[in-house]
Design goal:
about 250 residues; TIM Barrel; eight-stranded parallel beta barrel; 11 helices; binds 2-phosphoglycolic acid
Length: about 250
């Protein structure tokens, strides 16, 4: 049995005060949800303030990216130790905005994944195809390459701390969600590939999230798919009411 995981990625939104107010609302509606995990990824600058609001809550925190090194000359980066000291337990890695806008390639993303693993962070490892790739029927090749390169060197043991997020680039922030059938097809493919790379028991235990325009009105049907174990939510995670509905999916 895989425990559902609902994650909110706030991207570059909210100042510290806004983050504080939003998390207070979300914390209230997440109280008592004992059969699922809720993770929030506010901007780094708000992580610590938010973690204080969540001290008595089961809601977990993630950074939106993480460096592989513990410290050093890496201007603009945040280390795994810093993420932990701010009160977070997880990091999103390889988000399509990092890949596309900031040109992070599979090798760099792999280093980040290995760094997160080494320091005991849950890595929420994102993959996804562009519209052009989907239309040229290369979706599965692209995803396979992203997985094989991104997870290179990640041991079976470390897979216990890994979450995979399938986020088709064409569905992110566009209001265009993959249909439940499209998402399920890809999730099943990812699980089969993980069974090939590792073993079936590992593949069966890894949580695979869907991301890309997840909203209150489509979360239930997505979560009803056998291989969809959760959601990575952007826009709808910035509104307490809609995120509360999402984490309370039926
Ligand atoms: P969206 O973003 O829900 O706004 O489409 C998802 C994501 O980027 O993780």
């Amino acid at each position: 049995m895989r425990r559902p995981l609902l994650a909110g990625n706030w991207k570059m939104h909210t100042n510290i005060l806004e983050a504080y107010l939003l998390v207070a609302e979300i914390g209230k509606c997440a109280a008592g949800l004992n059969d699922r995990d809720v993770i929030l990824a506010p901007p780094n600058v708000a992580l610590n303030a938010v973690s204080r609001v969540l001290l008595d809550s089961d809601v977990l925190l993630a950074s939106q990216n993480v460096c592989w090194a513990e410290e050093g000359a890496f201007t603009g980066e945040i280390s795994p130790a810093m993420v932990k000291s701010a009160g977070a337990v997880a990091s999103i890695i390889g988000h399509s905005e990092r890949r596309q806008i900031f040109h992070e390639d599979d090798e760099m993303i792999n280093k980040r994944v290995l760094g997160a693993v080494e320091y005991g962070l849950i890595a929420i490892f994102c993959i996804g195809e562009t519209l052009e790739e989907r239309e040229s029927d290369t979706t599965f090749d692209i995803l396979e390459a992203q997985i094989r390169k991104g997870l290179a060197g990640v041991t079976a043991e470390a897979m216990k701390n890994m979450v995979v997020a399938y986020e088709p680039v064409w569905a992110i922030g566009t209001g265009k969600t993959a249909s439940k059938e499209q998402a399920q097809e890809v999730h099943a493919f990812i699980r089969k590939l993980l069974a090939e790379i590792y073993e079936k028991a590992i593949a069966d235990s890894v949580r695979i999230l869907y991301g890309g325009s997840v909203k209150p009105d489509n979360v239930d049907e997505l979560m009803a798919q056998p291989d969809i174990d959760g959601a990575l939510v952007g826009g709808a995670a910035l509104n307490a009411e809609s995120f509360c509905r999402i984490i309370n999916f039926n």
